Model the fold of this input.
Amino acid sequence: METNSDHLMSKLSPSVPARPLRLLVLDVDGTLLTADKRMLPEVKAAVRDVVTAGLEVALATGRMYPAVRPWIEELGLRTPQICNNGADIVDPASGRFLLNLVLDSGVATRVLAFGREAGVTLAAFSGPRVLAPVHTPDHYLIERNNEPVEVIPEQDFYSVAFTTEKLLFLDQAHPERLTQLRDQLLAQFNHHRPLPFSVEITEPGILNVCHPQACKAEALRHLCEILKVPLAAVAAIGDSDNDAGMLAIAGLGIAMGNATPPTLAQADVVVPDNEHAGVVTAIRQYILSIH
Done:
């Protein structure tokens, strides 16, 4: 009987059919970056080689655009970029938003009230700002991602006097608690069909709530329409649950060795983990070789 380990190993060196590729989409945390949030020099060089080869290259990240703009500039990316977990698509040349999905203010108010009642650390992403009613150690989870938190008066925060792309529940000490909070939040809205938001655990300790159509897979579809690139000509690389959908619809879905089970299940191939430059293997072995 084949074990999960056997299945993973079988994906490390598969026979992948050649296909023309025109767009590479890369997750950031856990894929492009190591656990300590560094981009290895060999990873930078490999991504630049993809740009030089003439492919479009886009990041697809849960981070807001200003948090990844330095890497976009360093890598020389000119393709529109997917940010805020698919709520935004931003043109690097102009800074213009080609897609900007915000939560309904009434829904955001209810979600924030739920979070306040649960006693969880909160953050709201509003354009270039990350807002909170109070600063806590849990905010380290996003501030390490170049997303500094701005404290605003509590009454302003809970009245949602701002446009919100996404809300975060944060728990650094007990990340497993967020699974229970996610299920409780879904139960509170179970009479809504369709649900008025999407909710995912995007990293350990981070629960993400955003517009119901804001996800990396839908943003990738939208980006392909903008670029006039078929999904079959897309290679997507990721590691987290929120990457699984885009790997499933891409012509070539590549999971990192550190990927979660849902993401591994949707991958055509698996490469080494982010600590061992798996992106380089993906680019050299599967992308540039069949471009």
